[in-house]
From TrEMBL:
The keyword Transport applies. This is Transport permease protein. Its main location: membrane. Belongs to the ABC-2 integral membrane protein family. The chain crosses the membrane at residues 47-69, 76-95, 128-154, 166-189, 201-220, 256-278. It is a multi-pass membrane protein. GO terms for molecular function: ABC-type transporter activity. Keywords: Cell membrane, Membrane, Transmembrane, Transmembrane helix, Transport. The keyword Cell membrane applies. It is found in: Cell inner membrane; Membrane.
């Protein structure tokens, strides 16, 4: 019709130019929820089974070393053995499950050919990393809560909190460290055997040899030095300090504060390294 202005054709943006700029909060939240739903669909295996396994550790060690139910047995750091070992077992369960969750995400995608579903959405490497690590921390917190509940019901064991800040800080730092390490391991791994090797030969030994069941002052000097080089030792001992108010990190609270700062710096460095590896596309995009 005459007299009407023609509508100009819609101009499409140049190819390759991102349309979502800034921080993609919706995409990050969607991936986080997807990762949480993945482990919650099998929560009997991913949350409650680790709690039962950890409780069995408590039963075995308190009966064998601390007396039945932790009563009438030996004391460590001025508390019954069961009360001493409980925080370490909670922290160990949290860290191992944080690693298990984050190490599965990318590896399963690579093995099943579905990793494109993680790489194609408009998510930056930082957003992808935050979502996967955040879901792993969520699982770790849920496992820690389930383990703590089971231990609170166990006779002769106290899980009363003395320093809440230490419980929160070292708990989150321990879960974050293993979540980031699990993501890095899933980038490197090419099959599930590689992931299992990291779990069996790195994560499990460092967890069990970190003072979970003993104080390192009982070790000879060379082995004390080795234990102090183990970052798991500071996570578990700092977490135990939050419950008992005492720790074998050092003779005063200043040592615990230094350890708290140290584990924070360690996580920042590990996170930066993992981010750079993820951004390079090594073993993912190539």
């Amino acid at each position: 019709m005459t007299g009407q202005a023609s509508v100009p054709p819609r101009a499409f943006p140049p190819k390759g130019e991102p349309q979502i700029t800034g921080f993609n909060r919706v995409g990050l939240w969607s991936l986080y929820i997807k990762e949480c739903r993945r482990f919650l669909k099998v929560q009997t295996q991913t949350v409650w089974a680790p709690a039962v396994t950890t409780l069995l550790f408590l039963v075995i060690f308190t009966v064998a070393l601390g007396g039945a139910g932790g009563r009438g047995g030996r004391e460590v750091l001025g508390v019954p053995f069961g009360t001493f070992v409980a925080p370490g077992l909670i922290m160990m369960g949290m860290m191992q499950n944080a690693f298990a969750n984050s190490s599965f995400s990318l590896l399963a995608g690579k093995m099943q050919g579905t990793i494109i579903d993680l790489l194609m959405p408009p998510l930056s490497e930082a957003e992808l990393m935050i979502a996967i690590v955040g879901a792993a921390i969520t699982r770790a917190v849920m496992v820690g809560g389930a383990v703590a509940l089971a231990m609170a019901l166990y006779p002769g064991v106290s899980v009363a909190v003395t320093h809440p800040w230490a419980v929160v800080w070292f708990g989150l730092m321990g879960a974050t460290m293993l979540a980031i390490f699990g993501l890095l391991a899933s980038i490197w791994a090419e099959k599930f055997d590689h992931n299992a090797a990291i779990t069996n030969f790195v994560v499990a030994p460092l967890s069990l040899l970190s003072g979970t069941f003993y104080v390192i002052s009982n070790l000879s000097e060379p082995f004390q030095a080795i234990s102090r080089a183990n970052p798991f030792f500071y996570m578990i001992s700092g977490f135990r300090y939050g419950f008992l108010g005492v720790s074998d990190i050092g003779n005063d609270n200043a040592h615990v504060l230094v350890a708290a700062a140290g584990v924070g710096v360690l996580n920042l460095v590990l996170g930066l390294v993992t981010y750079r590896v993820l951004k390079s596309g090594w073993k993912i995009k190539s």
